[in-house]
Amino acid sequence: MGLCGLVHALAARTSGVYIQHLEYTAASAIEADPAEIEWARDMIPSRRAQFAAGRWCARAALRALGRDRCPIPADRGGVPVWPEGVVGSISHKPGASVAAVAATATCCVLGLDLELDEPLDDCAIADVVLTHTESRHVREIGWGRWGLASPATLVLCAKEAVYKAVYPSVRIEFDWDDLELRFDPPSRCFSVVWLGEMPHVDVRGAFEIGDGWLLAAALGNQ
């Protein structure tokens, strides 16, 4: 399927959300807005390439949404600043970037995350990312028949998408164990259960698995 196929499959299941991707090499000449270049001038070259590719994807997604071209700066925390009436999210991995946008009439929060379907580098990381309930849940599913190499990385990917969706609106940093996810492989969807005193934002999620990639989106209303 490749990353292109994953993007199209996820977009088809998230009505009103426009997703674009770009796979590139270090030598790629990626179009960038002058205002964005200024913001990224202190980044190392590899990070600057990721930044430019992500903004390219974001502008392509905005065009698909019917919005005019505009720079997409970032605030002091590095969160993209979207045009009025738009929510969006950008994710990078070396050599690939993805971005998603939607009108606020469609959803109030939107997050997207891209990961390689590889085991986490340190088993201790999985113990931090997954709650005990999630660990039991993903073991019971039997992910091998769904083509997933690393269930823990899928949980990380989905939680990153939720964080990117929720943080810009609540501006509260939360931990991995402030929420639990429930996955439904046949529908390739997941639900979010908020724990403790976190704001209970109504968020739902969808994911795709294929050719070594994991792609997750989280969207909803406050």
Automatic annotation (TrEMBL):
Protein name per the record: Enterobactin synthase component D
Protein family (similarity comment): Belongs to the P-Pant transferase superfamily. EntD family.
Alphabetic keyword roster: Enterobactin biosynthesis, Magnesium, Metal-binding, Transferase
InterPro entries on file: 4-PPantetheinyl_Trfase_dom, 4-PPantetheinyl_Trfase_dom_sf, 4PPT_N, Enbac_synth_compD-like
Originating species: Sorangium cellulosum (Polyangium cellulosum)
GO cellular component: enterobactin synthetase complex; plasma membrane
GO MF term set: holo-[acyl-carrier-protein] synthase activity; magnesium ion binding
Cofactors, names only: Mg(2+)
Record-annotated 4'-phosphopantetheinyl transferase N-terminal domain positions: 41-102
Pathway note: Siderophore biosynthesis; enterobactin biosynthesis
Subunit structure: EntB, EntD, EntE, and EntF form a multienzyme complex called enterobactin synthase.
Keyword Lyase: no
Domain 4'-phosphopantetheinyl transferase: 110-201
Keyword Acetylation: no
Sequence positions that bind CoA: R47, R55, S91, H92, D113, E160, K164
A biological process term (GO) from this entry: enterobactin biosynthetic process
Record: residues binding Mg(2+): D113, E115
PANTHER family membership: ENTEROBACTIN SYNTHASE COMPONENT D (PTHR38096:SF1)
Function: Involved in the biosynthesis of the siderophore enterobactin (enterochelin), which is a macrocyclic trimeric lactone of N-(2,3-dihydroxybenzoyl)-serine. The serine trilactone serves as a scaffolding for the three catechol functionalities that provide hexadentate coordination for the tightly ligated iron(2+) atoms.
SUPFAM superfamilies in UniProt: 4'-phosphopantetheinyl transferase
Record's catalysed reaction(s): apo-[peptidyl-carrier protein] + CoA = holo-[peptidyl-carrier protein] + adenosine 3',5'-bisphosphate + H(+); apo-[aryl-carrier protein] + CoA = holo-[aryl-carrier protein] + adenosine 3',5'-bisphosphate + H(+)
